[in-house]
Amino acid sequence: MSGQTSIKPMIYAALFAAITAIGALIEIPIPISPVPLTLQVFFVLLAGLVLGSRWAGTGMVVYLLLGIVGFPVFSGGSSGIGTILGPTGGYLIGFVPAAFVTGRITETFGRSTPAVVCAMIAGLAAIYIPGVVQLSIVAGLTVRESIVIGVLPFLIGDSVKLTAALIVSRRIGYVSEYD
After folding, report:
1. Residue 118 lies in a domain
2. With contact defined as beta carbons under 8 Å apart, do 131 and 91 qualify?
3. Count of structural domains within the chain
4. Where does residue 2 rank: exposed (0-12), middle (13-18), buried (19+ CB within 10 A)?
5. CA neighbor of 88 nearest in space, from 142, 146, 45, 48
6. 66-88 pLDDT tens trace
7. CA atoms within 13 A on the CB side of 16
8. Are 38 and 88 in contact (CB under 8 A)?
9. Which helix (H) or strand (E) holds 102?
């Protein structure tokens, strides 16, 4: 199928939307934060590494659209535009650029461990930045307060997820859209 996209990456994008939803159901509340600890970030980063920018971003758009139209795919089984507009909505919105950026950096700089780690750190930043901004606005907090409750409690867990995504992506490999 030279020059044509196969159906394989489309299926994988849909699969990553589904497993990101499953990752949202596995949550640990953080007492000082309205943002729970979930496995979503692991799947967002893994999507970028496995699918590349185009299909990872597409998978996360599908995930968000499923939640917006009412499927209970956000943390705790929540859904709807109210969740997107609420204090945790910025993090959810950040999933799309995070998956895209993680994929784009690995496409551009290769799949060496330093490149992949940098790609995932950039992906995390793409989640944290809109997350902190929206948390600050919606909850009426300063940016500093939003960082304290919306970033700092998650850094250790996200480091573990980053490491796990690196390991799992090495096992899965890259899904080419031309396979």
Report:
1. yes
2. yes
3. 1
4. exposed
5. 146
6. 999 999 999 999 999 999 999 99
7. 32
8. no
9. helix 89-109
Residue-wise pLDDT tens digits, 25-38: 999 998 888 888 99
**Tell me, what DSSP letter sits at residue 34?**
S
- Indicate the average pLDDT of the chain: 94
On whether residue 110 sits in a domain, the answer given is yes
Domain that holds residue 71: 8-172
The predicted pLDDT at position 178 comes to 55
Instruction: Give the count of beta carbons closer than 10 Å to the beta carbon of residue 71.
Output: 14
Backbone angle region of 38, left / alpha / beta, with phi > 0 → left and psi within -120 to 50 → alpha: beta
Of the candidates 69, 70, 51, the residue with the CA atom closest to the CA atom of residue 59: 51
**What would the mean pLDDT of 114-130 be, rounded to a whole number?**
98
The backbone torsions φ and ψ at residue 31, rounded to the nearest 5 degrees and listed phi first, read: -55, -35
CATH number (domain holding residue 22)? 1.10.1760.20
59 falls within a domain = yes
Decide: 159 and 152 in contact? Cβ < 8 Å: no
